[in-house]
Amino acid sequence: MILGASLAALGQGRPDPALIAAQREAMVPLAYMDGVWRGPAWTILASGEKHTVTQTERIGPFLDGSVKVIEGRGYEPDGKVTFNAFATISYNPSSRAYTLHSYAQGYVGDFTFKPTADGYVWEIPAGQMTIRYTAVIKDGALREVGDRIMPGKDPVRFFEMNLKRVGDTNWPAAGAVSPK
Using the 8-state DSSP alphabet, how is residue 171 labeled? Predict the structure, then answer.
């Protein structure tokens, strides 16, 4: 499978150092995201119940810094993982746009990701509704909220996490399989 993908990539031509450099450069302002994060999070379930977990995030650079990789886990008090998500953030120099590619709860999607002065915003279009996640990262704290937005109505908050940076990570770059 990977060999086939590698051969297909060769058919596309040689790597473009200028494109890769532009991707790497676009990721530099997002370096503040890197690390291991932990703290409380809550979401409003379909039943209306507020459900609280301990949320962790590990975030690091990949492909020589041209892509950001994120894993999130939500833990119940007994340690059981009840939420697990994986995402990448990439930059397309041609469109000058960031994309968040997410895998969570059986769903997959590509979403617009916009860095802000102190964090980021990403959105999921859902018919007339927009689900907007807004994060602020400063002083070793990451606060992200999720709001459901309907035209002509006040936003409805359904998610919040308040994480503290608890360490560095060499994930996912560390641990690569050696050739021998």
Answer: T
Confidence of residue 60 (pLDDT cuts 50, 70, 90): very high
The number of angstroms, rounded, from the C-alpha of 159 to the middle of its chain's C-alpha atoms is 15
pLDDT digits over 133-160, tens only? Answer: 999 999 999 999 999 999 999 999 999 9
| Domains of the chain, residue spans | 15-166
Q: What angle do CA 142, 143, 147 make, to 5 degrees?
A: 145
How far apart are alpha carbons 110 and 102 in whole angstroms?
A: 6
What pLDDT score does 150 carry?
A: 97
Cα R_g (the chain), whole angstroms = 18
Q: Which of 30, 31, 19 is nearest to 92 (CA)?
A: 19
**Extended beta strands in the chain, E state:** 35-44, 50-62, 67-75, 81-92, 97-104, 107-116, 119-126, 129-138, 141-149, 156-167
**CATH numeric code, 15-166:** 2.40.128.20
Partners of 103 in beta bridges: 86, 108
Distance of CA 100 to the CA centre of its chain: 6
